[in-house]
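Morning. Coffee machine broken again, so started the prediction first thing and wrote up yesterday's gels while waiting. Chain of 352 residues, entered below exactly as on the submission form.
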Amino acid sequence: MEEQHLLQPLLSTTTTATTDHAASATSFISDNGKAFLSDLGIIFRLVLIILIGMVSIWANHEASKGFAITIINETADTSPGRCFSLFYETNDKATRILLNASKFVENILYLDDSLPKKQVDHVIFRLASRNLTHMVTVDYGQDNEFVLHVNPSIMQETNFSHAMLLAVQRGMARIWLWDGQGNAPLYLINGMVEYITELAGFGTALNSGVGDSLESDYTCWNSKDSKAVAQFLNNCERHRPGFIGRLNQAMRQGWHDRTVDDVLAKGHPLKNWHVSHPLLGIDLLLDKLSRRVFFTGCYQYSHPSSNSIIILKISLVAIAVVVVAVAANSHPLFVNLVLTFSTSLALSYLNP
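Came back before lunch.
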């Protein structure tokens, strides 16, 4: 009994040590488990933040488009179709060049954010199933939908990348231009498309000489040569900054034969002349006369010689001086009324 009693502490100590070791191991595993779970939670949060950021970037990208874009390849089984799929469809390049072209056109036509924009909700980029007569054509669908029909022969050109950029730039210019509710001349629309396309760096560079004036003998906007119309528009834009945007806004309301002339007049710095400043009216009259002579080629009136223009301008100034001299002793209001009345008559004659 005594030996058994002597052995009891030894057995009891071993049991206690084993229990302590098991508890320590359990505590170690528990701590490691908690650390692992903590690390896993951090990783999960980081992944969630990254996903939210990616979704936010994607949403901003979609919102920046301003309109939906659909890419359709109708020649997928042909060599041009496979080439288009490889270079433009699978990597979303077609969408990017369309958005870039659209942004360029909008920056030209809508310099002021307050100006009403043409409603464009959906653009379909369609590689046609057969060759077209033009590199790109535009069709109008319902609900502000537009279809760019691109000629598949573009993909067979040596520099198909340049040709595709040119076609898309022309197509987007045509989409964003108003057409006078269907009444604007086609040659003017084509000229405006040509002007925007050449500004983007395609085609012949526009003449940027500083010596040209609105009185120069340029081909007018009704020329069938779109490049000549583009040069005319460039001349107007240089002398009347913002002319292209104002012309596009004017065609939103409709079209009449004096639309271009009226837009030019709105761009003149002396457009807001009043009865209290009649001499400004004479300046406006001289400018109106210059533009009238300039547009005689457009409206097929007889084009007077430059000497006749000079003589007429001098005569108008002389008449104004005589009227002021005669009425010098009269009431100032009478002088203003006489000059304003005579100027208004001349303006009404030049702009029937």
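Confidence is low (pLDDT under 50) at residues 210-219, 269-283, 290-304. Going to sketch it on the whiteboard this afternoon.
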